[in-house]
Specification:
This is WD40 repeat-like protein. By secondary structure, the protein is mainly beta. The chain is about 10% helix and about 35% strand. The chain has a domain of about 140 residues. It has four helices and 20 strands.
């Protein structure tokens, strides 16, 4: 039976000379489609050209997000809709056919100790008991319970990191969370929760999509909601956006350009028009202030200025990971 494709991820070509695509569908299956450039590569990888290997079996929920790790290219992050008794976020090792980590939304309230603290190549973490019984491809690990409705809407690996993952999830309040896979308890920190006050603020339960880092600024990332508002943050000061971008229509896709710094493209629902914005001159990362532009282009987020002192206090109590300070000094 033909099933709708709901998520897609291409293997980082700069890492290995092969063409590998991960495809997720509407019933929770995630498959690998492998296309070698020559027969030798196909043989060495153990997969025939054009074959499909299901890395996670059908679980009767939608696969929402997939992304390969740029450092450990054999690790695939898989995000799913919420379903009782199933993990919404799974880290899969495609070479070993095993789930390294299963996080988010396990109804069992399994122990937060979800397996050994993995090394820079966490292949030893694949057989810890208590995993999701619906998965194809080997032993999982116990899920980390974060409450009901913890479905994943978007995810992305942090640049230059082998172990850090940002995840946008729809819970009681939508949020963006930071996961460090080296931590034994896979503790997450909340980077951003949409503010519900104000005319332009997103509702607390508004899902966030297309989480992504700027290819020209690895400290800056962006996401958007379906109402037509995109948010941009600096990961060092992630409790409020650097910039709020009003797209003027319901947004289905928003992307950074990978050819020109500071350029963002957006497409609205049911629209054949792609809007392109230039943002660099309007961002002052040092002052942490947004600036008002012409109506219909950008919205001035005055709430951010009013909350600046409050945010500084909160960030001092919940600082970002130490390695970010190293990135900032380079």
């Amino acid at each position: 039976m033909r099933r709708s494709v709901t998520s897609l991820a291409a293997f980082p070509r700069e890492a290995k000379n092969m063409s590998l695509v991960a495809v997720g569908n509407a019933v929770g299956e995630v498959g690998l489609h492998f296309y070698p450039y020559d027969e030798g590569e196909g043989a060495s990888a153990g997969l025939a050209a054009g074959s499909q290997s299901v890395v996670y079996g059908a679980s009767e929920r939608v696969s929402r997000a997939l992304e390969f790790n740029k450092v450990h290219t054999d690790l695939l992050a898989c995000g799913f809709d919420h379903r009782e008794g199933r993990s919404s976020l799974i880290i899969h090792d495609i070479t070993r056919g095993a789930n390294v980590r299963q996080l988010l939304g396990s109804s069992s309230g399994a122990s937060e100790g979800v397996g050994p603290k993995h090394s820079r190549h966490p292949s030893s973490a694949s057989s810890v008991g208590g995993g999701d019984s619906s998965g194809g491809g080997g032993g999982g690990v116990g899920g980390l319970s974060l409450g009901g409705g913890a479905g994943v809407t978007s995810l992305c690996w942090v640049p230059l990191s082998a172990d850090d993952l940002l995840v946008a999830s729809k819970r009681t309040r939508s949020s963006i969370r930071w996961y460090d896979l080296r931590e034994r308890k896979t503790a997450s920190r909340v980077l951003y929760v949409p503010i519900s006050e104000g005319v332009d603020a997103a509702p607390a339960s508004e899902p966030i999509y297309d989480l992504q880092f700027d290819p020209f600024n690895r400290l800056r990332y962006m996401a958007h909601d379906r109402r037509g508002t995109a948010y941009m943050w600096d990961i060092r000061w992630a409790m409020r956006p650097l910039l709020t971008l009003a797209l003027g229509t319901q947004a289905t896709r928003v992307r950074f350009s990978n050819r020109r710094s500071g350029t963002v493209a957006a497409v609205g629902g049911g629209s054949s028009v792609v809007s392109v914005f230039s943002i660099n001159e309007y961002i002052d990362a040092n002052a942490h202030q947004t600036k008002r532009l012409s109506p219909g282009a950008f919205l001035d987020d005055s709430r951010a200025k009013d909350r600046y002192d409050e945010d500084k206090s909160a960030m001092s109590a919940q600082p970002p990971p130490a390695n970010l300070h190293v990135w900032a000094e380079r």
